[in-house]
Amino acid sequence: MKPVALTCGEPSGVGPELAAKTWAALRDRLPFFWIGDPSHLPPGTRHVEIASPAQASEVIDRGLPVLVHPFPGTLSPGTPNPDHAAHVIAAIEEAVTLVSQGAASAICTAPIHKQALQDGAGFAFPGHTEFLARLGGVNRAVMMLASDQLRVVPTTIHIALSEVPGALTADLLRDTIRITHAALIADFGIPAPRLAVAGLNPHAGESGKMGRDEIDLIAPVLAELRAEGLSLIGPMSADTMFHAAARTGYDAAICMYHDQALIPIKTLDFDRGVNITLGLPFIRTSPDHGTALDIAGQGIANPTSIIEAMKLAAQMVAARNR
């Protein structure tokens, strides 16, 4: 397959270290290249500068293939440089261009520091998901967190908990379920996906005693989509959805807000979780953690999540090609 594009992310975080560790783990298993400034890599990192993604497969056994994207100024691990912000954004844009042109098969993004991008470049997006949706030309993208034990999708994402009831609309929930269903078929090779849908309130509202969102909003959407042939369970009480026996009954859980989805998967499989953006015209994965500025430059960052993200990207490419 064409190589996977790995973006540099925030260079003052653990991204450069993770790129080097990913190459050490996967150089014999899948082709990829890193977009970034080679001077940011840990000292002694074996790397080969390439002129195009096509060269990645030819040189990956000799070192990390680097598609050079020079950054201005100095790098200080743990302290973002405002001069770097525009270049972090440009590296993501470059990866999208390459995958859209067919030069790369998928994108894996190292973590970004959203505050640093906002301060240094006026970044107007809550995170990668919304930015990639804009770059991909889609009105709505969906965030999934996945591991071998669980797949979860939050319907609302990076907003305050107090804003969730107002943001949760029938259109948003309907689109989230449809995009997830389509991605499970196309990108995960599941021909007839089973989706479990959480309620918003404790005990899924308990027949209206603890809120009517399940009765007035969630249940009608599920009835509509069941009529279209989707296999849906719910609305379910979120506190009974994630134990081992319950998880055998569905392929992905649709949750109503960020923590309702992310707490279960991070509790079950913190190191191996992968962030995936569904609904894009290209495949994008990412490790399920942040920039870890507090340990940057120390050589102790755990690469498990980004390695899993790279492997899953390759698996999704294979599934989509089939």
Q: What key attributes describe this structure?
A:
322 residues; alpha/beta; Isopropylmalate Dehydrogenase; 2 domains; 12-stranded mixed β-sheet; 11 helices; 12 strands; 37% helix; pyridoxine biosynthesis; magnesium
Write the layout of secondary structure elements.
Elements: E1 4-7, H1 15-26, E2 32-36, E3 47-50, H2 56-59, E4 64-68, H3 85-100, E5 106-109, H4 114-121, H5 128-136, E6 142-146, E7 151-154, H6 164-167, H7 170-186, E8 194-198, H8 213-227, E9 231-236, H9 244-247, E10 252-255, H10 258-268, E11 274-278, E12 284-287, H11 304-321
Number of domains: 2
SS field, number of helical segments? 11
Uncertain runs with pLDDT below 50, 5 residues or more? none
CATH superfamily of the largest domain: Isopropylmalate Dehydrogenase
Helix content: 25-40%
Strand percentage lies at: 15-25%
Structure description:
This protein is of the alpha/beta class and 322 residues long. The chain folds into two domains: 1-140 and 282-322, Isopropylmalate Dehydrogenase; 149-268, 3-Layer(aba) Sandwich (Isopropylmalate Dehydrogenase), CATH 3.40.718.10. The protein is 37% helix and 17% strand. It has eleven helices and twelve strands. It has helices at residues 15-26, 56-59, 85-100, 114-121, 128-136, 164-167, 170-186, 213-227, 244-247, 258-268, 304-321; strands at residues 4-7, 32-36, 47-50, 64-68, 106-109, 142-146, 151-154, 194-198, 231-236, 252-255, 274-278, 284-287. A twelve-stranded mixed sheet has the order 3-4-2-1-5-12-11-6-7-10-8-9, with helices on both faces. Strand 6 (142-146) and strand 7 form a beta hairpin. Helix 3 packs across helix 4 and helix 7 (170-186) packs across helix 8. The longest helix has 18 residues, at 304-321. One of its GO terms (cellular component) is cytoplasm. Substrate binds at residues 128-129, 266, 275, 284.
